Amino acid sequence: VSLLRPARRPRDVGPSVWMDAPDARYATISRALALATHRRPLVVWLDDVHWAPDALSFVSYLLRSQDQQPVAALVIMTARQEELAVRRTERELLDEILAAPHAVRHEIGPLPEAVRGPFIEQVLGLRGDLAARVRVRTAGNPSFAVQLMGDWVARGILEPSSSGFHLRAGADVQLPDDVYEIWSGRVTSLFEGRPVLLRALEIAAISGRRVDEQEWLLACTKLRIAPEEEIGPLLRSLVQELAERGLAEKHGRSGWSFVHGMLHESLERGAREVAGPDRLAWARLHQTAAEVLQDRATSEQREPPPGRLGRHLLEGNRPSLAIAPLLQSVRDLLARGELASAQVSVAWLLRALDAADAESFSPIRIEAALLEAQMARQQGRIDAASNCLAFAESAARQQEDSPWLTEILCEGSIVAYRAGQLDVAVSRSHEGEALAAQHAPLLVACCLEVRGRSFTDRGELQQAQRCFDDALSIYRDAGVFRGIASCQLGLGWVAMTQGALPLAHRHIEEARATCEERDLRMLSGVCMNMLGEIERQRGQLAESQRCYREAVRRHQSCGALATSMIAELNLALVHLESDEFVQARALASAVNQSIEVSGARQFLAAVHLILLVCAAAAERWPDWSKHFEAACTLLDESGQVHGDLATLAQRAARMARDAGHSQRASAAFGLAEQQWRRLGDEPNAERAKEEEASVS
């Protein structure tokens, strides 16, 4: 992160940009790290992640995007087991990271007793009684010892001598228990004799790293930390002091942010754990923060931010009241495509449900499982989405007239489509539409849209167009812009498959205008990918490559790695058309690994056919046979057809024929002919048939 923002900004540098959407921040940091690794690999160390859900979410993003945007970095995280035991959100985020194929967990104990003394004396340079006291207190934790030394040097307590460091004359120290107590000591020293300022900082810390100035003022006023007329000037002078010390960064009139995460976390921890006459109870702080959000929203005639409100209510010991805003937070974040933030909100929601003792098969649990499935599906974790839906459907069917069953079936059809199970997708969409027909027209539109995509992939283009037209009409009547843009893209895909490129371009540009106007980030990436498809079909490979790369960037910026796979595969096709087989193979292999982890088998046949052509170019004929068999099996199971699939099979066939492998060539020509015929392209089908006959 220091690559992006120094602790103390030079005066001649303009204001930094604060990114409210975590996915955009993660994408920016990831790109910065990737650029830094062009020179050499990096080691990224994240200390005490049990207090850092945002850092854990970033690492999760980094892992998921590794195939699309590789970062040559070793990420080292440290966490305390006893802290994870009481922090569910962080524990679940860390468990997800550890489930990744390349993640390794190590239990790190203290330094052996035999090396503690030499470390304190020879590495840190302490001597005598002071070295012995530090050795006992730090208990083999070298990081704690280094932080302690740094704090003492900064405060002028230590002086160097020929034999090492020793206490300054007349100085005495109380040894802290851990690193956070060091930071707490710094804060206490900084505001010694000014307890009101410490209270004000604790109130600021519970809002997060960024502090809204108006909310902070209202909270401090409600908690009566000082006479009302003194609070405003007091807070302004506090922020100025923090900024001058490099501990805060001001954002104009809107507020300010903590520069050092350790400072913010130490204040938050102090507010949570330390009791005394100068401290405010943790629950009371959060209750007040929730009241401020609600009061301000009422005065401004708007809804309070649901995620923050839900978190404050939960931490304020009001879990039952926290559930509704946390549910709304997840819905909103999914609608905006902010998937990393949604994942954190889902963890808070599950924690609230447990704290409120919500029944296992209650409607609220069902809705939470459905939202978790939608999040996992948008992240490309198809297997995880299927598991959530299995629970939700089982629970919903046990209830009479469950309001969620229709939406579960609709979501199930989308997941089946993403898994490459086109027949299942069509069947589930019919079942969902039948239930939705009387009371949920938007779910009818969703089911029609899934069928439209399934029919397009099966080459049944007239049925696909009818489905998209009907769904588009429903979305327009309801003013659902995301659905409108999605159906416009579907119609563009149908037109493109029919070879009507001008019509396809018109549909896609209409969708892109809707996405730009309504800030539909994920769909804007789909628009760029489809514009790349049109340029590729026109033979404009450089422009198509630019569009695909922009699509990847947009998908990664919102955490939509599943849709990013499509653009990655299209980039591989551009490399193939330029005979850049090594690059194409690398991209297809990376997507193949992502599919193995996520279960998003929708693209797997295309992956194997790309690798088929690459195997022919490298004359790896056993690999050729493996990929051909896998592609045929997948296409038989799904019924999927596409011009690119036919073209890849035909190219692999010609390469096999030219290398003297007539049996392989004949089989691949047969697959190409089958694809062309199902697409209704008789001239290309006859050409493939003639080429097959020529090698038989």
Give short descriptive properties of this protein.
about 700 residues; two-stranded parallel sheet; mainly alpha; about 5% strand; 3-stranded antiparallel β-sheet
Short description:
This protein is mainly alpha-helical and 696 residues long. It is 69% helix and 4% strand. Mean pLDDT is 85; it is low at 1-19.
The quaternary state of the protein chains shown equals single chain
β-strand percent reads under 5%
Query: How far apart are the first and last residues' alpha carbons, in Å?
Result: 61 Å
Arrangement of strands in the largest sheet: 5-7-6
Largest sheet: 3 strands, antiparallel
Radius of gyration: 30 Å
Apparent shape: globular
Estimate percent helicity: 55-70%
The mean pLDDT is 85
- Say how many strands there are: 7
Describe this structure in words.
With 696 residues, this protein is mostly helical. The protein has 33 helices and seven strands. The strands form three sheets. The protein has a three-stranded antiparallel sheet. Strands 1-2 form a two-stranded parallel ribbon. A two-stranded antiparallel ribbon has the order 3-4. It is globular, with a radius of gyration of 30 Å. 47% of the residues are buried. Mean pLDDT is 85; it is low at 1-19.
